[in-house]
UniProtKB/TrEMBL annotation:
Family indicated by similarity: Belongs to the short-chain dehydrogenases/reductases (SDR) family.
Annotated InterPro entries: NAD(P)-bd_dom_sf (IPR036291), Sc_DH/Rdtase_CS (IPR020904), SDR_fam (IPR002347)
Keyword line: Oxidoreductase
PANTHER family the record matches: NADPH-DEPENDENT ALDEHYDE REDUCTASE 1, CHLOROPLASTIC, NADPH-DEPENDENT ALDEHYDE REDUCTASE-LIKE PROTEIN, CHLOROPLASTIC-RELATED
Lineage: Bacteria, Bacillati, Bacillota, Bacilli, Bacillales
Xref: NCBIfam families: PRK06701.1
SUPFAM superfamilies registered for this protein in UniProt: NAD(P)-binding Rossmann-fold domains
PROSITE patterns: ADH_SHORT (PS00061)
GO biological processes: bile acid metabolic process
Signal peptide (residue range): none
GO molecular function: oxidoreductase activity, acting on CH-OH group of donors
Organism: Paludifilum halophilum
A UniProt-annotated Pfam family: adh_short_C2
Protein name (Swiss-Prot/TrEMBL): NAD(P)-dependent oxidoreductase
Length: 299
């Protein structure tokens, strides 16, 4: 076993949060949450919601697992209906759908490759056919490849990383934008590495810096339409991206060098997305919330 710390809910311990993880690796991107040991914690039982997103429709990319799943669950508790966009992790997506529907929300699953601009248009078409409207877009999906030197990053890898992490954000934003109205919200997942870098994630870090700049520029572009654009910059969070990209020995110590000495869990980010999606943040645009275990960053 590995050391644990308790996660306290309203009156009792619901589940323990691991401080470290067993060495493990998945030989595919994106990874599968169903194969992770232990499974990430996506649902905070002490978070009940208060209808802050009642009647709204949210599209979340990468919503099948990890941070996206946690955000989908929190949005469902707040009354939103969900569209979960993912590549091919069908079992994970079904699990997310069942959790969202448990809390009374409707959930549409859409599988496909967001690197293709035409698929973003299909996502919007299916969403409008199902729900008739769109209020919130969460651009959240990503891939990363661990390479110790820039000399090991092929042109194919560079193109794959940027098309997945950056181009797709542009494509889906373009497709959704005509259907957003004043008060709508776009939220983009960047990363702590956009600010501090990572020596073995050079192309991934570059994409997260691009997302940061895209978020700030887009917020200025859409102010006159009353559409807010913000971001969340996670630190080390236990998601399928970790065992599917890092060597097993790095997985076993993932997050221990953060100020809080352990990785975060997906549910710990979800309230930041709820805040940025709802009217609580109606005077906030072009900003990034840092959920990173206490790391100090300069913007």
């Amino acid at each position: 076993m590995y050391p644990m710390v308790p996660y306290y809910g309203r009156k009792k311990v619901y589940r323990e949060i691991p401080l470290t993880f067993p060495p493990q690796q998945q030989n595919r991107q994106p990874g599968l949450e169903s194969l992770m040991v232990p499974r990430p914690i996506s649902d905070n039982p002490s978070y009940s919601g208060s209808g802050k997103l009642r009647g709204q429709v949210a599209i979340i990319t990468g919503g099948d697992s990890g941070i996206g799943r946690a955000v989908a669950i929190a949005f469902a508790k707040e009354g939103a209906d969900l569209v979960i966009v993912y590549l091919n992790e069908h079992a994970d997506a079904k699990d997310t759908q069942s959790r969202v529907e448990y809390y009374g929300a409707r959930c549409l699953l859409i599988s496909g490759d967001l690197r293709e601009e035409s698929f973003s248009r299909e996502v919007v078409d299916q969403t409008l056919r199902k729900f008739g409207r769109i209020h919130i877009l969460v651009n959240n999906h990503a891939i990363q490849f661990y390479q110790k030197s820039i000399l090991d990053i092929s042109a194919e890898q560079l193109d794959h990383t940027f098309r997945t992490n950056v181009y797709a954000f542009f494509y889906l934003t373009k497709a959704v934008l005509p259907y957003l109205s004043p008060g709508s919200s776009i939220i983009q997942t960047t990363s702590a590495v956009a600010y501090e870098g990572h020596e073995a994630l050079l192309d991934y870090s570059a994409t997260k810096g691009a997302i940061l700049s895209f978020t700030r520029a887009l917020s200025q572009s859409l102010l006159n339409r009353g559409i807010r654009v913000n971001g969340v910059a996670p630190g080390p969070i236990w998601t399928p991206l970790i065992p599917s990209s890092f060597p097993p020995e790095d997985v076993s110590t993932f997050g221990v060098d953060s100020p809080m000495k352990h990785a975060g869990q997906p549910f710990e980010l979800a309230p930041a997305y709820v805040y940025l999606a709802c009217d609580d943040s109606k005077y906030v645009s072009g900003q990034v919330l840092h959920v990173n275990g206490g790391e100090m960053v300069s913007s």
